[in-house]
Protein: UDP-3-O-acylglucosamine N-acyltransferase
Amino acid sequence: MKISAEQIASVLGGEVVGNPSVQVSTLSKIEEGKEGSLSFLANPKYVNHIYTTEASVVIVNKSFTPDQEVKTTMIKVDDAYKSFSKLLEYYNQVKLMKSGIEQYAVISEGAVHGDDLYLGSFSYIGSNSKIGNNVKIYPNSFIGDNVVIGDNTIIFAGVRIYSETIIGNNCIVHAGTIIGSDGFGFAPNEDGTYNKVPQIGNVIIEDNVEIGAGTTIDRATLGSTIIRRGVKLDNQIQVAHNVEIGENTVIASQTGIAGSTKIGKHCLIGGQVGIVGHLTIGDNVKIQAQSGVTKNLKNDSAVQGTPALGHADFLRSYSYFKNLAKLAEDVELLKKKY
Structure:
């Protein structure tokens, strides 16, 4: 897609200095700019590049005054960094502006959908499912029976959404994610074998949630696994049955949350964290990467380590641990001396 400097300035509310008709079709760093690309200058340490860049258009602050000739077309705005971010968002919206039902897609009997549906090839929507307006479902995705998906939600390629799942408005589910698979429930027999415990609950995902690629969210044994509004999940996270994650909590990659744990609002959880089952994690909790959480955490806690300690306690303890060999030598010398 090509767009002119004049059109960009209109989107950003900026002023064109140079050729308003010049067109761009790609984005670049200012130091790597090529003809037909758009870049921005916000950090003063990169100012020299505006005189040499081959980018066709560069977004700059209104306060920028060149001290030599600038060959590229500039768009002057109040804040170049924020304007470039706004343009990225606009570009992404245009790129994802698809509609229509492609060949080999299947919509089962009783399923209904709103306006401007995009359903990619080899995707499937099960019986009695309800799909909202402006929903985008990319190729090779599976939507089971009785699923509800709200308006403006994007389901990327290869996603599997099992029956009875409910997904809200303005959500993004990235490729390869599985929502609503069975929770890990087995009852042991006397002979050492196991009987599967039926998992008859569902998953509820509220509005404005983003779920990274390859993440798995299990259905509840009874009731619901719940992801509250505004939650952001990274790639390759495991959320077990009957877990509840509070509003606007952010969780990094490769974290695993065992069954029936409740996580509060506005928590920040690092990568490769392990959280055992049936815990209550309070609001505004910070859990450092690679921590193992084995007990309940109060509101506003910050923990680290395995098992997780208070963050300040962990740092103090680690300062001793890294010198443990030297401390042991000192103890041996003291034992010999006394």
Observations:
- The chain is about 15% helix and 30% strand.
- The radius of gyration is 26 Å.
- Helices lie at 5-12, 80-95, 311-321, 324-337.
- Residues 3-95 form a domain with the Udp-n-acetylmuramoylalanyl-d-glutamate--2,6- Diaminopimelate Ligase; Chain: A, domain 1 fold (CATH 3.40.1390.10).
